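hey m, so remember when u said the tokens were messed up on ur end? i reran from scratch. heres the input so u can diff it against urs
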Amino acid sequence: MVEQLLWVKLLRLPALALRPQRVVLAVFLVVLVGLIGRLEMPWRDAETPPFLDAMLGAKLEALAQLWRGVIGLHGGAIGSGFAALLIDVPAMALTRYPVETVLLGVPIALVWAVLGGAVCRSVACEVSLEMTLPWTKQLGFAVKSWRTFLGVAVLPGALIGVIALVLAMGGVVLFNGVPGLELLGGLFYGLGLLLALAAAGLVVAMVLGWSLLLPSAACEGTDAIDSFGRVLAYVVARPVRLLMYVLIGGLVSVLAGGVAFGLAEGAIGFAQATAGAWVPAESLVELTGAYPLEAQLNEAGELREVGGVAAASSWMVGFWGSCLRLVATGYALSCVLTAGTLVYLFMRQVCDGQHYAELWSDQTEPTSRA
């Protein structure tokens, strides 16, 4: 009976994600990743999109295509999504952004692992132990366990990369125009297909289980390999149950995040509209950064330029609006990490029979509820 009702507890997600310590950590994560990922390399021209924008855009587009294919049972869309995740996204990273993949990708992965892991640990402590700890304590836990968090976060991509490298090297060696080697390559091509099948299977598993990776490290006192193995085991053991939890958690996260962004945009629009209600048209530029249509020309019929104090004022107004949007983004990310933690705890109970109220501790916290 309890197992059947675990999904109802996912409805607590918006309130759990709204805890200030989680929103603060998530905001730090968004700011640091944004600063690192949008660093401009001196050899890049202005038309080339930043590393983070290009990679996130390509990966989200591939995942959206894959999910549309899965939900709609459309084989072509599923195949295209797999191809994009397995080939197009890594190829773009290695061919268009080879240096940035190392210089920027590694710090981004570390920031994601540590701060995201801290959010997951915070959720696990509250849900399992009914303890609300300060964000500094949870961050300290994640920093101390950074190897595990980083390892479990990058292990799936590393495994897929190794398989791709092995297949690419095999192609260079065996299919290089030498008749004897070409025959040998054809003979062992079946082994290459098995490796490619393993990579494709890993992508499928991670589409379902990627959100469980950091929670698995946050909830268990194990290394990255064991945490990754747990997630794979849950995906294989109960894929339908996991899909149901992921869909419910994803839907609740989207709705909660949408409300947060709606409130942020509504507050920004309301503040601008009311603050400028009795302001002359010529002065609205100090709020909006642009002159309204009826005030774009001066007395001489020339186009007004925005500058000086007006430009500084509009920049500060925009800055405060961006801060509000940043908080909404942090809350949305907190929802995603909270959902992953809840789903991991519930899948652990379903698959292993370990109640979600039990949690590994480093001896500074209790291991279960009193």
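this time it looks ok to me. The longest helix spans residues 308-352. if urs says something different then somethings off w ur setup not the seq
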